[in-house]
Amino acid sequence: MAFQDNAWVSHDLQEGWMAWDSGTQELLVFDGVSWSPLAMSPEIFGVNTSADATSRFAVASDASLFTHDGSDHRLAINRAGELDTASILFQSGHSGRAEIGLTGSDALTVKISADGGTFLPALSILPSTGHIGVGTDSPATGLHVRDAIDARITIATAASGSGGGFDIMNSADAQNWRVTGQNDLFKLRDHTAGLDKLVLQSGAGGDVFLQNCGNVGIGTSPPAACLHVDGAVRIGAFTSATLPDAAATGAGRPGLRDGRPGRCLPCLFGRRPMAPHL
């Protein structure tokens, strides 16, 4: 039945006709014999755009929303095997610029590209260890930073006069060491005890150099001896009575050697002493 020209007109049912069932809130289709719910199972589906054999589901809109139906919501991207890909690709003008997901391994990776053809590893997290790699897809430690020329980590602060650094902590022993760079100095601090253990400060007088062989250079590099000073050396004043016992201190202490008169620091550096000494 159809209402047309102010009158009802009867038509014979034709196969393929559709009708809306307001009672069941279903769209029905007539198959030539009876009405049945319309089965919505297209193999290719496009919303405001055309889908194809590769992108079988395509949407053109300002945004897409996937929400919960009472509590949680999970979006799953599944792949066939470890060597395949399950990822999200970000494009500019249909040219890839960044990709995040599983790309040829079980590691979670973030890759970037300047041309859509060559992708470089920016971040990688290994599933077996949880190690994080920056610039490498095989991190060997908790945080592994790699660069072709100059691998570094930059810790920058924006406020004038402030410093940047990092903490080295042992949660089991509640021990906290802090490495800080601020203005013209560099500090290694026992933050638990609140004591600075090593302070390097820049200035016109030179810098301090520590070699892996144990040599220390002050104002010169590389140091040619265990202690190599480029400039004057100033030592504190003390009396013979305040010297520690040589037997308890051991050999090598300035002033006394094995309990007998030895050579003081000015003598060791080839300079004439300013006052009588032991």
Helix count from the secondary structure assignment:
2
Which radius of gyration do the C-alpha atoms yield?
A: 39 Å
Q: Spans of 5+ residues with little confidence (pLDDT < 50)?
A: 255-278
What is the SS-derived class? mainly beta
How helix-rich are the residues, as a percent range? under 10%
**Overall 3D form:** rod-shaped
Total beta strands: 22
Order of strands, main sheet, comes to: 8-9-10-11-12-13
Largest sheet: 6 strands, mixed
Mean pLDDT: 82
The termini sit apart by 127 Å
Would you list the SSEs in sequence order as H and E?
Answer: EEEEEEEEEEEEEEEEEEEEHEEH
> Strand percentage, roughly?
35-45%
Explain what you see.
The structure is a single chain. The protein has 278 residues and is mostly beta strands. Helix content is 3%, strand content 37%. The strands form seven sheets. The protein has a six-stranded mixed beta sheet, with no helix packed on it. Strands 14-15-16-17 form a four-stranded antiparallel beta sheet, with no helix packed on it. The longest helix has 4 residues, at 246-249.
